[in-house]
Design a protein that fits this description.
By secondary structure, this protein is of the alpha+beta class. 28% of the residues lie in helices and 36% in strands.
């Protein structure tokens, strides 16, 4: 073999070695890009989950959080006074939002029974406003919602934390008859207690 052939052979080896190093470098860069794409896809998935939860919390349809009705029905005795109402309550079993409450007044109640839904310690959710001034002494008496032969649906958006009370209070000015009244709040789970 001549020296020019040896030189060409060395150049071919160097060129092949350089070309191999180049392809190895490209392969490593492709692996890095692949890892970055995988990380980005995972991040986008988490962002999409968070957006879906946010959309649902704002009334969208992306994520379906579970809703549960709870009964606070009671048989209200005759002559149950406004300042000493009958109460029925439970503690929220999870962080939730009260989305609706159904109030059922049977036929024959003749608007003699009133209902109120509250946290039991001062915030009245139904009826909204919760208190009214009396003419006699200027103090504020609790308001109660009354109806005859109807089920009323009240839309709410009230957050209640796990363990906090949900209280239905009942009054009656019927002097002779007890009346069975239904109060059914609907509780929607809140994501992460938000």
């Amino acid at each position: 073999m001549s020296s020019s052939q040896d030189q060409n052979s060395e150049i071919d080896k160097t060129t092949a070695s350089g070309l191999l190093d180049y392809f190895t470098s490209v392969d490593n860069k492709l692996d890095e890009v692949g890892e970055q794409i995988t990380t980005l896809v995972q991040a986008v998935g988490k962002v999409n989950q968070n957006i879906a939860a946010l959309v649902d919390l704002q009334g969208g349809d992306s994520v379906s959080l579970r809703e549960f009705p709870f009964s606070l029905a009671a048989e209200v005795p005759a002559n149950t006074p406004r300042l000493d109402p009958l109460s029925n309550s439970f503690e929220a079993p999870f962080d939730c939002t009260i989305t609706e409450v159904y109030l059922g007044f049977p036929a024959g109640v003749q608007q003699s029974v009133g209902v109120q839904l509250s946290d039991g310690v001062g915030e009245i959710w139904v009826p909204r406003g919760g208190t009214s001034s009396t003419v006699s002494n200027g103090e504020r008496d609790p308001e109660f919602l009354t109806e005859e032969d109807q089920t009323i649906t009240v839309s709410l958006n009230v957050d209640v934390d796990e363990g906090e009370p949900i209280v239905a209070s009942f009054i009656s000015n019927d002097p002779e008859n007890n009346h069975f009244i239904t109060v059914t709040p609907v509780l929607r789970e809140r994501v992460g207690g938000d």
